[in-house]
Prior knowledge:
- The protein is 37% helix and 16% strand.
- Helix 4 packs across helix 19.
- It is globular.
- It is built from 24 helices and 20 strands.
- It has 3 domains: 3-187, Rossmann fold (3-Layer(aba) Sandwich), CATH 3.40.50; 200-363, TPP-binding domain (Rossmann fold, 3-Layer(aba) Sandwich); 382-554, Rossmann fold (3-Layer(aba) Sandwich), CATH 3.40.50.970.
- The model is unreliable at 587-595 (pLDDT under 50).
Amino acid sequence: MSPHDHSEASAQTLNGAEVLLRILEEEGVDVIFGYPGGAVLPIYDALFKQNTIRHILVRHEQAAVHAAEAYARSTGKVGVVLVTSGPGGTNTVTGLMDAKMDSVPVVCLSGQVPVPLLGKDAFQEADIVAITAPITKKSTIVKTPDSLASIVRDAFKTARSGRPGPVLVDLPKNITTSPAPLPPISAKQPAEAPQKTISSKSISDAIAALETARRPLFYIGGGLVNAGDEAVSLFRELAAKTGFPVTSTLMALGAFPASHAQSLGMIGMHGAVEANMAAHECDVLIALGARFDDRVTGRVDAFSPHSFKIQADIDPREFGKIIPVNVTLEGDLTETLRLLLQSWGDRSAPDLKTWWDKIENWRDVKGFSFEQSHEPHAAIKPQYAIRRLHQLSQERGKETYVTTEVGQHQMWAAQHFGFEKPAHWLTSGGLGTMGYGLPATVGVQIAHPDALVIDIAGEASTLMNIQELGTIVQYRLPVKIFILNNHYMGMVRQWQELLHGSRYSQSYSESLPDFVRLAESFGLKGLRARHVGELDKVITEMLAYDGPVLADICVAEEENCYPMIPSGAAHNQMLLGPDRVYGGAELTEEGKHLV
C-alpha cells in the first residue's frame, strides 16, 4: 500500500491487527520472523489475508530474533519479530540482549493478554515491558487503539536512529481486535531529532594529531559497519590517503579488506600479534565506531599507553567509559569521515617506513601459524579446515556470507577466513551467544536467496538451536552448516587447560548425536570428514549441493586458539602456543597464564 492511499484506508473500518500490518508495509517490511500463539492470533489472521509481507515460521522465539538480527545486519533494514505472550516474549530475551550489545535494529512485536486482565496473572501473562526495558532501546505497551499507529511508527524510528538497537512493542489482544485509526504518515510523532553537528574544533584537533603522527593506527569497530556502505567507502578512502595501518575488532571484519597491505587483521584477545603490538606502540590511535571492549583492551591500565587517542562515535556514552581519550568526535560516522577527508585535503601520506618496518617484524612472528599433517589419516586441524573452506568457497565465485556460533570456531573463523566486504560476517560479539549462527543463516539466506551462506559452528553451540534445521528445510534454504566437532565446549576447555590446571570440569560432551543422521532426519544432506584426506571432498560436495547441508568435521580435540591474551594480562602479552610467549611475560606453573 502506498502512502497516498492512507486516506482511503482511514475511511475503512480496520482492526488493530490490520492497522499494524499497514504500518509494517509503510515501513518497508517484507519479512517477519515469528511463532504464533493465542495472544497474537488476530495478527496471524491478518497476515493470512494479505500477500505483501512474508512470514518465516521459526521453531523457537530466540531463533526468531537471531534470524531478524542477521537479516537486518546483512541488508541495513530493520529486522522484525512477532511472538506471543508469556513464554513467547520471555524466549526473546537472549536475542534482544544480543541485538542491544551489537547495536542491531530489531522491532519485536509481542502479544499480550487483554488490557483488562493486565496485572491479574492471566494465562500466559508476563510483564515483558519491564523484563526487556534494560536490554532494549525502548520497550512499551499499547493500551489504546488510538495510540497503536504512533507507537509502532516510533518503534521503527527508534530502532534505526542514532546508535541502532532493539525496540519491543507489547500488543494486548484486545488492541489488535478493536477498531483502530490509521493516521496519515504526516502525523508521525515525535519528529526526528536534528542531527548533532560535529565540532569543527574536534575535527581540527584530530587532523593536527594525524598529520604529526609517526606511529598512527586506525582501530575500526562494528559502528563503522552499522553506519553503512557510504561510511565504509569513505573510511577506505581515508585509509588510502593517509597510508595508516588498520586494525579491526571482531565486529568490523570486512569493513577493510583482509587482503589489503594496510590491514593488520583483528585486534584483541585472539587477535593478530601485529595488531595488538601496533596498538601498544602507536603514538596516535584513531578509534572509529569502536568502544574499547575488554576483549580488545586486555588490562585497561596498560592499553595503548603511549598514544594520543581520538574516538569517533554516534553514542556519547562511549566516550571515556573504559579508556580515556584526548579528542571526541560525536556524531554520525559517515559525516565524521566526510569531514576528516575534507580536512585532510590534498596532504600527502606521511613517511611511515620506520613504523611499517616495525610492523613487518611483528608480522614475521606469524601468530596464527599452525602445523597440519597431510598424511591421509591425520587429524584435521580446525584452522586448516577453515582455510580450506575459505579457499574452496572463493573458487565458486558466489557472494558469500558467514555466520558463526560462539567459541573457538568463532575465533578461528575470524583469524583464517578472509573477509573483504562489510556485513558479510555475522557473529555474536558483545553477548557471545551460543546458538546464534544457525538461526542467523535463516535471516541471511531469506535476505540473499542467491548467496552462499555458511554457518561455521561448534557442536556444542549447534545444539543450542538445532531445531532450526526444521525451518531451513521448510523454506528450502540452501545454507551450509560447517561444524568443527571436537566433543568439547572448546573455549571452556581451553581456559580450563590454561587457567585452571587442566581440570576439565563439565566441558566434555560424552554423548553427542550422529550429526549426519540427525541432519538427514530433518531432510538435510549430511556429510562427515574424519581425517584430513577426506576434508576437501566433503567441502567440495557441500558447496556444490543445491540444498541445505550439515557437514560434521571431526577436528583435533586438544587444539587451542592462539594467540591468546589471558584474563588480567596486558594486550602486548600473548600466548602463542603451549610454550610460546610473546611480550616479555612469564608463565606461571599453575594455570599457565601471563602475569
